[in-house]
Amino acid sequence: MATQIMPSPGARGSTPGDSIPAIRLVGLQKRFGDVVAVDGIDLDVAEGEFFSMLGPSGSGKTTTLRMIAGFERPSGGRIELHGQEVEDLPPFERNVNTVFQDYALFPHMSVADNVGYGLLVRKVPKPERGRRVSEALAMVRLGGYERRRPSQLSGGQRQRVALARALINRPRVLLLDEPLGALDLKLREEMQIELKTIQRDVAITFIYVTHDQEEALTMSDRIAVFNHGRIEQVGSPADVYERPATAFVAGFVGTSNLLSGEAARAVLGADGTYTVRPEKIRLAGIEDPVGDDETSALGRITEVIYLGSDTRYIVALDAGGSLVVTQQNLETSSTEALARQGDRVRLVWKRQHSLPVQGG
Ligand code: ATP
Questions:
Q1: 59-97 burial by CB neighbour count: b if 16+ within 10 A, else e?
Q2: Same domain for 265 and 165
Q3: Which end of the chain is more exposed for a tag (fewer CB within 10 A), N or C?
C-alpha cells in the first residue's frame, strides 16, 4: 500500500516495495516528426500511489499520460499496467480512466445522468446504474446532488462530478491532466486537499499531471520532475525539495538559489554548483558572529518583496551572483522590511544546507 511506502531518496523510478507496479514505463519514447516529446522514460508507480508528473510546459507530461491512457502510441519502449503489456490495447481495455482539465459535462443533463452516462451507453440496467451513481457521488462527497444541473454547481463541485464520472467504473488507475487548472487559486487549494482525501478513500492509483510545484508538493506520495522529455528526479515531495538532484529541479521545485563557479569557490570554498533554500538563510548584521557549522556571505539587499506572512529579500553577493532570502515577519512590519532595501548584510546558513546539484 502506498501510504506505508517510504521511497528511498533519489530513487529513479524504482517501485517502493517489491509487488508488481501499477504502472511500469521502460525506455518510453514518443516522437512527433522531428520533435522528441518523450525521450526514454523509465518509471515504476506503485499500486495506490498518488503520483505526480511535474514539469514546465512542453516537457512531455501530457504525452506520457496519453500513452498510458492509450490515446497515443509510443515510438519506442514499453508500458505495463499491473504487469501486463498494453501498447496494443485500446484505451477502453486498459482499466484506466482519465480526467481532463476541460471536464466537459453535458449541460442539459442532471448530475446523475452525467455521472452515469458511461453505464447507460454500456446498457447497464437502471437500478444498478442508480446505485452506482449514488456510490460514485458519495465518493466525491456530492451525495444528494443527483438532480442538479452542472450550471447549478460551483466550479469545484463540477470538477468533483467529472471525478465521479471517471471513478464510477472503479478503474485501477486514474489519470488526471491538470484537472484543477481552470479553478481560481483558493478553490484550487481546497480541491487539492479534497482530491488527496478522495484518493486515500478510494485507494486507486492516481497519476496527476501538473506544472504547479506547490500542487505537486501538497498532494503527492511521489513526484517525477520532467524536463525536455526526460525525468530529472523521482522522489517524495521532501526528497525533491530538500535534496534536488539537479539545478533544474532545485529551480523548478522552489526558488532557483544557485551558487556556482567563482561565487561557490569564494563562499563555500568548493567547486561545482550548490543550491540553498531561501528559508534556510538568515539575514544578519555584517559584524555578527558566524558559528563553526555555518557559512556566510556578505552582500547588499537589492530588492524587498513584502508578502504578508513573509518577506523576500534579493541579495547581491560581493562574491558575485545573488541569493533570495525569505524571512517570516515574526515581529517585522512591512515598513521595517521595505526600509532594508540597500542595506549591507551578512547572509548566514548551516553548512549542511548548501546542497550540491548537477548542472547549473
Ligand atoms: P503542457 O503542460 O503545456 O501540457 P506537457 O509537459 O504536457 O506540456 P506535452 O504536451 O507532452 O508537454 O508536449 C511535449 C512536446 O511534444 C511539446 O514540444 C509539444 O509541442 C509536442 N507535441 C505534443 N503533442 C504533439 C502533436 N500531436 N504533434 C506534434 N507535436 C506535439
A1: bbbbbbbbbbbbebebeebebbbbeeebeeeeeeebbbb
A2: no
A3: N
